[in-house]
Specification:
Low-confidence stretches: 79-85
Strand content: 15-25%
Shape: elongated
Distance between the termini: 46 Å
Number of strands: 14
Number of helices: 13
Structural class: alpha+beta
Order of helices and strands: HHEHEEEEHEHEHEEEEEHEHEHHHHH
């Protein structure tokens, strides 16, 4: 049951809120401009943070699909400085012979897959149908597809013989099936790639899009066939290793580094001209860069909110000056200083919260619009919504306290004399 004192406090709060809303309506333009500035600041924080949260989730999912227990060996460019003791004794890429030599020497229980990028703008034809010139064509060995954590939905994988001897067979993604085969069953059919005829022996399980790029718009052919039939400007071979036991991951990486140094004929004094990269290393690097963007966005938003706070304080000071006689009248009729202070604080908080709500809504729309472009899922950033509301509350209290305190300390006699 509410006590009389509680009822009195609730009535006072309701009256002050009513007076604050009436004051905001009477100064629509000034209030609207301040709300707009606050909304822009909150929109920048919530919008960019929403997009980045969704993008981070997409990156994490995309790279986790590559397998948490895998790693790869990639070429690392090493500039040669004149007069330096560094030796450049190898090609500026990982050659097929390097990859095969490593595969033979590496004795840790693991699956080793090789792949080479042929082109990213290939055209695939079937009878009179052809794809857009944006098909990724890769050459792989018999382990290339499994080590990429891709599954074959229908058909089969390449055999060791096909991978080593250069068979004219292909495994295609679901996008290729839809674009050039329609309702026909692709298995056993022949497709044309750069004039060569390849029998379709497998169809990949659909993986959808990642960061706005379809993972199903791809064709795999045997790596030996790719090397023999395509002119590859930089024939760098990627080596992916998946240890049989994930607990031996660190050991497997160290062993791979040691074996590949032997393959690359590096001495103890030579630095690595390659790097062993964990499946999550690139994801972590991207997430670190994204965190910098997040901090920059928050800084921009906070600077905007700082300007909005100054503007709100000026508006409240002007409002106090304009309503000096009203304050004097209320005090003469018995209004307490705390009630006057509460009235102006409510006014500042209401303006900031209304601007914050507009900014949060616009931020969610902006952030998810960017997310949809990159192929991410729609999210509602509850954490950032709460942060936005608290920031706006802080802006309102900080901006309104000085003007509210000034109004509360006014002498009623002097206030009534004010012209």
């Amino acid at each position: 049951t509410k006590t009389p004192s509680m009822r009195k406090k609730l009535i006072t709060i309701r009256e002050n809120l009513y007076i604050a809303m009436r004051a905001i309506r009477s100064n629509r333009l000034r209030s609207a401009l301040t709300m707009a500035i606050i909304a822009i600041g909150i929109m920048a924080i919530v919008g960019i943070s929403t997009a980045i949260d969704a993008l981070s989730s997409t990156i994490t999912e995309s790279f986790s699909a590559l397998g948490a227990g895998s790693f790869s060996i990639e070429y690392r460019y090493r500039a040669q400085v004149e007069g330096s003791s560094k030796r450049n004794i190898n090609e500026n890429y990982i050659s097929f012979n390097n990859a095969m030599d490593f595969k033979e020497r590496y004795k840790v229980p693991a699956t080793v897959g090789l792949s080479i990028r042929v082109t990213g703008n290939g055209i695939v034809k079937y009878n009179s149908n052809k794809s857009n010139p944006n098909v990724r064509i890769l050459g792989v060995d018999e382990n290339g597809i499994p080590t990429r954590k891709m599954n074959i939905d229908r058909g089969r994988n390449f055999s060791v013989r096909e991978a080593q001897n250069g068979g004219y067979v292909a495994i295609i993604g679901e996008d290729i099936v839809k674009k050039i085969f329609g309702k026909d069953n692709p298995l056993g059919k022949f497709i044309s790639i750069s004039g060569g005829r390849y029998e379709v022996v497998g169809i990949l399980e659909s993986k959808g899009s990642a960061m706005g790029m379809s993972q199903d718009n791809v064709v795999f052919i045997p790596i030996s066939t790719a090397r023999a039939n395509f002119i590859i400007s930089r024939p760098n071979v990627s080596i992916t290793i998946v240890p049989d036991n994930i607990r031996t991951l660190d050991l497997a990486q160290n062993e791979a580094e040691g074996v590949f140094r032997i393959v690359r004929r590096l001495t103890a004094k030579d630095e690595n001209d390659f790097e062993v990269v964990g499946s999550d290393s690139m994801a972590n690097m991207l997430l670190e860069n994204i965190s910098i963007v997040t901090l920059a966005a928050m800084l921009i938003g906070l600077i905007t909110l700082g300007g909005a706070a100054v503007g709100l304080m000026n508006i409240m000071l002007v409002s106090v000056a304009e309503r000096t006689r009203e304050i004097g009248t209320r005090k003469a009729l018995g209004a307490r200083s705390s009630s006057i202070r509460m009235q102006f604080l409510f006014e500042a908080v209401v303006i900031s919260q209304m601007g914050g709500i507009i900014g949060i809504v616009l931020g969610i729309i902006l952030g998810n619009s960017i997310t949809m472009i990159t192929g991410g899922a729609f999210i509602i950033p509850w954490g950032w919504i709460i942060i936005g509301v608290l920031i706006c509350l802080g802006v309102g209290v900080a901006s309104g306290y000085i003007p509210a305190n000034k109004a509360a300390k006014m002498d009623p006699v002097e206030a009534l004399r004010y012209e």
